[in-house]
Amino acid sequence: MNWITNYVRPKINSFLGRREMPENLWIKDPETGEMVFHKELEENQWVIPSSGYHMKISAKERLKAFLDDGAYDLLENPRVAVDPLKFRDEKRYTDRLKDYRAKTSLDDAVLNATGSIEGLPIVATVQDFAFMGGSLGMAAGEAIVKGFEKAIELKRPLVLFSASGGARMQEGILSLMQLARTTVAVDRLKEAGLPYIVVLTNPTTGGVTASYAMLGDIHIAEPGAVIGFAGARVIEQTIREKLPEGFQRSEYLMEHGMVDMVVSRLELKETIARLLKIMLKEKVVPVEPAETEVIPALEPVETAEARQDA
């Protein structure tokens, strides 16, 4: 058996030209099951070309795709107390944080950056779902407040991309306090007369939805995103009724007036830039109508009645 495994099979594979394929070369579409080439998907901002399904994207990839030339300057996040409650479940909270920091190369779930879209300077705040489900703890809350303060200081609009499962349970009441703190930061930005646009991505739930994620001047949702406070199963168990199909999806919420528009990730930059220029009363280049052939007016035909009157 060893002779067949170690000698015959490699010879056959070599003869047939078979090669080992990287495991991440293809990615499966969660909706249709179609296999998509990894490189093609990456170039398309992680949107499945055939179905339009929006896959999750990291905060740094989001900033690179959204801002002009992929150029941005990251703001340093404020330092906060680590594990103030000395929390432990299956493992210590401090160990859990170390694991996620190693996996994502992030300090916490929020990144702030300065950059521009179509030449318009902005501050962008992005939540990364890969870091503990984008949960809102003290560090994330402090980072969001810092983003608003920077926007006020630079007199720039703020665009926030939400992606979160809600408050971070390992920080208890200290996590819930961030809902009030971020709400105050939103009010200060609005008092300064600066636009605040929220892009709701999949998923945006819990306390994040109950605070800064639903306080924007304009709410844009990515297609198919789950947006809500409590989970659909919890709601069904509470009201003991079957929820409508597509409940809490962005398209359903737009139909019922909870979000303003649903925009593909591929069109977000252009859409938001145009909205901000209108809100800031910047000059917006109108869309030129298609050229049409000018047909000269025909001269009136002299009729017999007209000649007789003359």
How would you characterize this protein structure?
By secondary structure, this protein is an alpha/beta fold. The protein has two domains: 21-55, no CATH class; 56-279, 2-enoyl-CoA Hydratase, Chain A, domain 1, CATH 3.90.226.10. It is built from ten helices and nine strands. It has helices at residues 2-16, 38-43, 59-66, 93-104, 138-154, 172-191, 232-239, 250-255, 268-279, 304-309, and strands at 26-28, 35-37, 73-74, 110-117, 120-127, 158-164, 196-204, 218-221, 261-262. The strands form two sheets. Strands 3-4-5-6-7-8-9 form a seven-stranded mixed sheet, with helices on both faces. Strand 4 and strand 5 form a beta hairpin. Helix 5 (138-154) runs parallel beside helix 6. It is globular and about 75 Å long. It starts with a helix and ends with a helix. Mean pLDDT is 88; it is low at 292-298.
Approximately what portion of the residues adopt beta-strand conformation?
5-15%
- Total tally of structural domains: 2
Q: Helix- and strand-based class? A: alpha/beta
* Cα Rg: 27 Å
Separation, N- and C-terminal Cα atoms: 114 Å
Number of strands: 9
What oligomeric state best describes the polypeptide chains here? single chain
CATH superfamily of the largest domain: 2-enoyl-CoA Hydratase, Chain A, domain 1
Q: Tell me, rounded to a whole number, the average pLDDT.
A: 88
**CATH class wording of the largest domain:** Alpha Beta
Q: Please list the strands of the largest sheet in the order they lie side by side.
A: 3-4-5-6-7-8-9
Residues in helices, as a percent range: 25-40%
Order of helices and strands: HEEHHEHEEHEHEEHHEHH
Using the coordinates shown, work out and report the CATH topology of the largest domain.
2-enoyl-CoA Hydratase, Chain A, domain 1
Number of helices: 10
For the record, the CATH architecture of the largest domain stands as Alpha-Beta Complex
Largest beta-sheet characterization: 7 strands, mixed
Based on CA inertia axes, which overall geometry fits? globular
